[in-house]
Description:
The chain has one domain. Helix content is 27%, strand content 23%. It is built from four helices and seven strands. A five-stranded mixed sheet has the order 3-4-5-6-7. A hairpin with a 2-residue loop joins strand 3 and strand 4. The radius of gyration is 28 Å and the shape is elongated.
Amino acid sequence: xxxxxxxxxxxxxxxxxxxxxxxxxxxxxxxxxxxxxxxxxxxxxxxxxxxxxxxxxxxxxxxxxxxxxxxxxxxxxxxxxxxxxxxxxxxxxxxxxxxxxxxxxxxxxxxxxxxxxxxxxxxxxxxxxxxxxxxxxxxxxxxxxxxxxxxxxxxxxxxxxxxxxxxxxxxxxxxxxxxx
Length: 180
């Protein structure tokens, strides 16, 4: 029995050594660098603008921090400035061309925004129309699918009514909702 006892004692000592000596020393607090950037302070009021750009895999929203609530006009103005350097690094671009004249966007009722363009819609790529309409819609409601966008073209009677799907593609409001 002494061989068994020696074996048990050896195994117990080995187990204790393995459990106690995992190779990590006990340490106190250590500096870990600068605080996180982009994290909101608990209780702090933050706002952001959701701008629709075109990326390598289609339409993509980019969020920009703002100091105050961002309405449709402010969001469209930011979109017209184009992507930031960081957004360009992510592969985001805009297909909204420079336009002579002013683009305006204003809420006209709950869940409705009027978008006035200085050029006819036919001069814009479909993705550019989506960028403008869905950026304005997202500024009215984070669920842009609830918002009716009434597009006003120069010298055209009436409006061209659009809705946005969840991915940011604009489609005629009277058309059936595209399936996802």
